C-alpha cells in the first residue's frame, strides 16, 4: 500500500484542528479560527504563513490571484471554513490553490456544527506549463 504524501505532517495538523475546534466550538468567523490555528500551529513548532498570495496564469499571463489561508512548513495549504457543511466548491477552491503552486497537499478544515476535514492532493507532475527556477512553493513555474 502506498504511503500518503505528507501523512505525518497532515496528521499533526488535523490534531491541531481538533484541539482548536474543541476549545473554540463553532459559530465564529473564519478569521477567528485562522488566528487560533496560527497560535496553536506555532506553539507546536510549525512554520506558518497566513494569507499567502497565489498568482494565477493563463497562457503565460497573470490573470488573477488567490490568498491561501495558511501554509504550513511550505508543504501543506490549509483552507479554513466556518460553514454548515463542506460543499464541492470548497474542495474546488483548495484544488485550484494546489494547481497554482508547487505544494501538492492541502487540508480543507471546516469549523461547522460538526468538525470536518478533507485531504486533497494534486501532484506536481500533473501541473501544466511549469518551468524550472528557484524554489518558491507558491510559484507554479518553479518546478
Topology overview:
Elements: H1 7-24, H2 30-43, E1 48-58, E2 61-72, E3 76-81, H3 88-99, E4 105-111, E5 115-121
Parallel strand pairs: 3-4
Antiparallel strand pairs: 1-2, 2-3, 4-5
Helix pairs in contact: 1-2
- Rg to the nearest angstrom? 15 Å
The CATH topology comes to Lambda Exonuclease, Chain A
- Total helical segments: 3
Query: How would you spell out the order of helices and strands?
Result: HHEEEHEE
Structure report:
- This protein is an alpha+beta fold.
- It has a single domain (7-126), classed as Lambda Exonuclease, Chain A.
- Helices cover 31% and strands 30% of the residues.
- The chain has a 5-stranded mixed sheet, with helices on both faces.
- Strand 4 (105-111) and strand 5 (115-121) form a beta hairpin.
- Helix 1 crosses helix 2 (30-43).
- The longest helix has 18 residues, at 7-24.
List its salient traits:
5 strands; Lambda Exonuclease, Chain A; 143 residues; alpha+beta; five-stranded mixed beta sheet
Question: Outline of this structure?
Answer:
The protein is an alpha+beta fold and 143 residues long. The protein has three helices and five strands, in the order ααβββαββ. The longest helix is centred in the N-terminal third of the chain and has 18 residues, at 7-24.
